[in-house]
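Format notes (please read before filing issues)

Several people have asked whether sequences and structure tokens are stored in separate files. They are not. Every record keeps both together, in the order shown below: the sequence lines, then the token lines. Line labels are part of the format and must not be stripped during preprocessing.
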Amino acid sequence: GVNAGSLAEAFAERADLSHAEKLAASATEYVQHFEARGFKVVVLSAKAHDVRTTVDAYRLLAAELPAIPLHIGITEAGTAFQGTIKSAAGLGALLLGGIGDTLRVSLTADPVEEVRVAWELLAVLGLRRRSPELVSCPTCGRCRVDLIPLATEVEKRLQDYRLPISVAVMGCVVNGPGEAKDADVGVACGVGKGAIFAKGEILKTVNEDEIIEALFDQIDRLG
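Then the structure lines:
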């Protein structure tokens, strides 16, 4: 593999090539080097910390070397916040285009967080789903509950589940069973109350302080 700091000398100083083209050309040269020496099983990477450069380089490689598996990633992406955004933008664009056989999310954070972000990225792209998806709306004038801590607590508790389901936490009945009707289970909040629903059908209404337990009671029934 190559990255921005390990370009082949033949391409590093060429002014007629973009950075992405230099990465792709360097990676292609390495593949040719190993194949000429009898190596048949090769996985290739060509990473940069710049999202656009990385995406363009991998697109060039996918077109030039369609038979070579590609290990994709945004290298040195930054802290958990910035690195997650950069990785989602770059890797998401590649994966949605059918590019990438293995991947690495590179964060200045606990390696466990890297794995968590990678799994979530694959899940939201519909490529690999093994944990719940949280659907929650932004706060607005119709919201009658303290939605942010409610959604945060649900998200935290969902981390212990290995169910490929969608769970909705909606701040009002307008956005509830209607907009989130595809959710396997959810809650639509009103004034001091919450309507627990599944696939758009309201199951029961509970008091605000009972919402989380009632919601997870329904989730547990799905498991």
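For reference, the curators noted about this record: Residues 19-35 form the longest helix (17 residues). The two ends are 42 Å apart (CA to CA).
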